[in-house]
Design a protein that fits this description.
Belongs to the transketolase family. With about 325 residues, the chain is α/β, with parallel strands linked by helices. Helix content is about 35%, strand content about 20%.
């Protein structure tokens, strides 16, 4: 893995979708009036005959995608996560999930990465999509995983929900990293804490693990790009080897990754204390910047360090995360 500050890559999803469409003429791209904002202006320019502008009518867009899938096509549906899931949920259930069709819902601006207030913040999208039979739910962490996950999507027989940060995406992994959809990834080793995370919280978790290692705390980071179906075996082994468990997600702590890990712990009968870092059953406010929100709602690197430190019962102040000056095009979590 690279060290922070991370270099970034612009529009990795949009370029990966174009590359997939060059190999498969059954790939169809749908936009919910957020074409440039979801990186698919690249697809529209390259394949205008396979691009559908569905407008701000997400329920209709989902129904169209279901019909296209019934005709043997591979519809990729794009809008912000909150509009991809919460608004057209009934259509997703009846036109996609129940008939188990290969529709790919791509939801951008997950969690509080959108500063637009509750109407634009998908803090419950993983929870509601996890609850649907037949759906695969994915939350990848960097530009390399985004490039790798797109061709994977076309091989999954049923529907998929993929949540993505948009725009300039950090490059965390080296090029030899291979995204697995059937396995969680153990990225660091340590027997004090099992830190289970994914998506935008991976970079903060890696930073927290480095700082905690300097204070003598061993952290085993379990990166879980696929929340459903969850690789329960890997999560269980990590939990068994740790004193305490912490989950970190850019989502409500109710129903998301933390809940999935809690289910593994409970069903396996493991006696491990669990702490969930995420949105604590509250809506976020609107803001001019997303980093402010990550700080305010306890999703920062320092909040993770403080949580692990307290969870282990250490006395005294927790170690402080190092911050670096960022150049243009570099990324470091808050």
């Amino acid at each position: 893995m690279h060290n922070p500050p991370y270099a970034t890559e612009l529009k990795p999803y949009g370029r990966a979708l174009v590359a997939l469409a060059e190999q498969r003429d059954d790939v169809i791209c749908l936009s919910g009036d957020l074409t440039r904002q979801t990186e698919i202006d690249l697809f529209q320019e390259r394949f205008p005959e396979r691009f559908v502008h569905a407008g701000m009518a997400e329920a209709n867009m989902i129904s169209m995608a279901g019909a296209m899938a019934r005709e043997g096509l591979q519809p990729f549906v794009h809008t912000f996560g909150v509009f991809a899931t919460r608004r057209p949920y009934d259509q997703i259930v009846n036109a996609v999930a129940y008939p188990n069709l290969p529709v790919r819902l791509i939801g951008f601006m997950p969690g509080i990465s959108s500063p637009g207030g509750p109407s634009h913040q998908a803090i419950e999208d993983v929870a509601i999509m996890r609850a649907l039979p037949n759906f695969t739910v994915i939350d990848v962490a960097d530009a390399l995983e985004i490039a790798q996950v797109v061709p994977h999507l076309a091989t999954i027989p049923g529907p998929v929900y993929l949540r993505l940060k948009r725009g300039e995406i950090p490059i965390i992994f080296e090029t030899d990293h291979e995204l697995r959809l059937d396995k969680a990834h153990i990225l660091t080793d340590g027997d004090d804490v099992a830190l289970v995370t994914n998506g935008m919280m991976l970079a903060a978790s890696l930073d927290a693990a480095r700082t905690l290692a300097g204070a003598g705390v061993g952290v085993k980071i379990v990166h879980v790009p696929v929340v459903k179906p969850l690789d329960s075996a890997t999560v269980r082994r990590a939990v068994e080897q740790a004193r305490v468990v912490v989950t970190a997600e850019n989502h409500s702590v109710i129903g998301g990754l933390g809940s999935a890990v809690a289910e593994v712990i409970a069903e396996a009968g493991l006696a491990r204390p669990l702490r969930r870092v995420g949105m604590q059953d509250t809506f976020a406010e609107g803001s001019r910047t997303a980093p402010y929100l990550f700080e305010k709602y306890g999703l920062s690197t320092q909040a993770l360090i403080d949580s692990v430190w307290a969870h282990l019962g250490h006395d005294g102040a927790a170690p402080i995360a190092e911050r670096q000056e960022l150049a243009v095009g570099e990324y470091q979590p808050v």
